Amino acid sequence: MKRYFIGVMIIISSLTLVAQKTTFITPDYKKIKKALSVKDSPTFYPKLMERYKAHDTTLSPADYHLLYYGYSLQQEYAPYAHQPFADSLMAIVRKERISPDQYNLILKYGTAVLDKSPFDMRYLDPMIYVLQMQGNKEMVEKLEFKLGRIIETIFNSGDGLTEKSAFHVISVSHEYDLIRALGFGFGGEQSLTKGECDFLKVETNDYGINGMYFNVSALFKAKK
């Protein structure tokens, strides 16, 4: 199945936006932790996550900023953990064609993976495809909203063109997901800078962009 983030380009309609951005919403983890810790607040993390898992489309960009970056502060955050059903799901997804009798397996495996890794975009996308094929328009819209908001959150954190303005991510896989969402092909080289950034080379493009930087400080903190 060769479908990656169809429809997400509604959010990022032109790659020229990368160069035009001048303000970023970078994560301030001290402020995020404080906002998520007040039990009687609507931003208390368990409340936000409950709404997120219920596919609540009233969650705002600010809510998603807290949800996404705040997840790296939670005890269950394990960016290097292998999800049990991930291999089974990807074995199906990598096929050129997926038969209808495998649709429910994709939904089953995808739901299981996302329960443990709620922001993993690789598994949202095939679930959206299956739901489209099954005619479940309501759930398609909810998952597309969720996928779009995650990408928008990362996109708003920087422009990826320098270490100082790197995109902030909480998973290495999100680096590749954002590159695809922006319309770039991975250039086959990944390197860690002296700071806390990954640099991913991209394929030759019309914008003269050699590669993109991703701040992975959240992953380094998880190792400690």
Features of the shown structure:
4 strands, 4-stranded mixed β-sheet, alpha+beta
The total strand number stands at 4
Secondary-structure element order, N to C? HHHHHHHHEHEEEH
Based on secondary structure, the structural category is: alpha+beta
Main β-sheet description: 4 strands, mixed
Which strand order does the major sheet show? 1-4-3-2
The shape, in one word, is globular
Any low-confidence stretches, pLDDT <50, length ≥5? 4-15
Quaternary assembly: single chain
Question: What is the alpha-carbon Rg in Å?
Answer: 17 Å
Helicity, as a percent range: 40-55%
* Strand proportion: 5-15%
Brief overview:
By secondary structure, the chain is an alpha+beta fold. It has helices at residues 16-20, 29-37, 45-53, 61-71, 86-93, 103-116, 121-133, 137-155, 172-181, 217-223; strands at 167-168, 186-192, 197-202, 211-215.
